[in-house]
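Homework help board

Subject: predicted structure for assignment chain

Our instructor gave us this sequence and asked us to write out the predicted structure in token form, then describe one feature. I got the tokens but I'm not sure how to describe them. Can anyone check?
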Amino acid sequence: MQISFRMLMAPVAVSVMFAAGSATAATYGSYADHEVDVASTLSASFQNVVTNSWVNLSAFAQNGVPGLTGTGSFPGTTMWAPKASQIDSVIGDAGGTAGGATLTKVSNSPGGGGAYAASSGLYFGGFSGDVNVNGGSLAVVDSSPLAGLQHISFQVGIGEASTYDFYNHVLPTLTYTTSLGTVSSVVATNSSILEAFNNGTVTMPTGEEPIYINQYLLQWDLSNVNEQITSFSIGFTGVQHAQVYGLTLTQAAVAAVPEPSTYAMLLSGMAMMGVVGAVRRRQRQA
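My token output:
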């Protein structure tokens, strides 16, 4: 299988680069093989950085990490209980807030089916053979985020079904609540595909097209939010027959270098992680 790198945005100034080059592999392996260490990069500009990872979303143990239990089976209509993160890490003195995030099933597919832990990851089950069918919604929720939260990074490893992964190609959205009760929903400040693992082909009306397991990185700059953020969620809807292999949430607070120009440079550099040479894009069928 061929691993390629694709971007969702125009190239910008680079200050940080990761995983330059391309590689080949026979199989995808595990989500941990594709997860990027965002926390170490953020620690250069923030005093407190907390990461919560779900590295095994299958029903079986992988690399010493137990699988998910209680999620039901095909077609996935069980509304399972929130799942705590499997691996947590802390940089700084924010240890008391580590491990507070949970993975939550928000809803099933309107047409029947939903996400459940299958043999390789969270599979959006259902009976439809159509393209781009709503497969149900998931969210990562944190009711006790870092005090002074200024930045959120979110990685998703998700496999496509008929060239779609997220329903209608809508990327995960952040919704946060502040100490004054203000609720805001915002799209990511930056979004990119760090890696696209070629997972075979599918027959589409236009002919044979490749399908990928995509490693997304989304980033939210919250430095201009004047109120304390007391809770947040990052929600997304997958298409039926797509599969989520892993998720990584990274929060950063208390800027050690608060100058806006420095922060902008950090975001620009992180947005280019995994880029090599010319960017290979492919047209998607809307």
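Reply (TA_rk): Your tokens look well-formed. For the description, you could write something like this. The radius of gyration is 18 Å. That's the kind of observation they're looking for.
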